[in-house]
What does this fold into?
Amino acid sequence: MLLCTMLVLLVLGGAGTASAHAALRSTDPADGTVLKSAPGDITLTFTESVGLLDDSVRILDPTGHRLRLGEAEHVAGGSDAVRVSLPAKSATGTFTVAWRVVSADSHPVSGAFTFSVGKPSATSATVDTGPVEDPVTGTLWDIARYLAYLAGALLIGTAVFVAVCRPPHPERLAKPLWAAWWTLLGATLALLVLRAPYETGAGPATAFDASALGRTMTGRPGALLLARVGLLAAAAVLLRRRIPVVPGAVIAGGLALTWAAAEHASAGIQVPVAITSSALHLLATAVWLGGLVALLMTLRQPVSALTVARFSRLAFASVTVLVVTGVYQSWRGLGSWNAFTDTSYGRLLIAKLVAVALLLAAAGYSRRWTARAVTLEAEKDVWERVPEPVGGGPSLPEPPPPAPPAAPDQRALRRSVLAEVGVAAVVLLITTVLTGTLPGRAETEAAQAPAAGALPAASVTTVPFEVGTAGVKGKVQITLDPGRTGDNTVEAVVYGADGGLATVPELRLSFTLPAQDIGPLDAELTDKGGYWGNGSFTLPVAGAWTMKVTVRVSEIDQVSESATVRIGA
It folds into this structure.
């Protein structure tokens, strides 16, 4: 346990943004968009439902000053999109949007993007979104999560072992049972206190802020942690009464649901089925791995082979449930075969499968030992019940009685179970890391999904030209909005050699599509006082268009330059 805790510190201590589960699918305006006028709202759409914090969206104007915004809220009809309203009047230039939300599966995620109004600024404001987690808070959070998994498995597994396998001295398991109960209670309270700084990325010193604790307890993750505390209180009552089977099963199922409803299963596709599968997976894991620890402690003294056989059957049933639910959860989390190798989630899943394979190999040896021990115990029972011959036949010398069958060495079983327990601790560690990693399906979806609901990014092209003196160049910045087939708004701004705005007598712009012999099409630009433009210019076909710019630099001199611009459908 100490070794695994150290591994948590090393492996999870700097998790950062990799632990985020929700991914930003799209923004409206899209990242890098150049708009003619400021939008009334900013919308962010995620791959799963997200929760909002007090300061979920911040917007910096082109000068780096923070805008006063309305409160961020979910878009009507769904909780995977967040909207915030902008002030009625906004400056021109590049705006920076910084955001931080909490995934439906309780993990925080943050980032930033930019958009421009009128034209991009020469320099844009920068915002440090910071790490998703404070390093100290994140480390404490991950250790508490691992201890909660470990203690939950030991608590449920030991209780089931006592109830089903009926060991000869169940009172010897009382101490580890209560140790697991206290550890799970302490880890749960730690998670409850650390929840607020974990969400906001603050240090652990802010954990006992009254308002933050109040917000935690009214949110879904906090409510599930409180429910776990309540279930543990009920479990304490049952433990003192030697755990009636039916109420104990209900409490065990409820404890499993406090994990399932707060992590991967609570977001994405087929949520009700996923939560049920995840709860069964957790219960099967606890019964198997926690039962292994209970069996290892029981094996300190001689144990009937029947007790071991009962656990062997229980473990076999648990593994069957693990395989069925594990296949479903892997399909749901990965989404494709390529995700096994192309995503962190897939690679961690492979590591878990390897560890489980090692665990099954050790379990196979234990199962063979159990079968041999049960057979020999049955033979011994038969040998002890064979009646002695009676009758009046001639007295003959009696042969020496056959020796009873020798029981297999229990120390070999104990070594095998000890190996299983060691590998099981590694499996739980990998599971903890896995539940803190973006699922492969969500990672692929975020990378490949179109910017649904977002404004298409405008096409901005800069064309340099000679201003009349050799080696001295100006430039024309041409914006096509939205830069797709159909009607477009065209804006052209001329800059002189010094980088400032320049006034020219005439500016012409035409488009030709050589591949289909279309054009030239005249954009019919007019002087708008500071820039040249046309509010309605049609590009009929998608493709690589040749854009020809003609700039009259004086009453008698003009220069023409060309550039290629790709127009989408």
Q: What stands out?
A: The chain has twelve helices and 17 strands. Residues 389 and 396 are 12 Å apart (CA to CA). The chain has a mean pLDDT of 78.
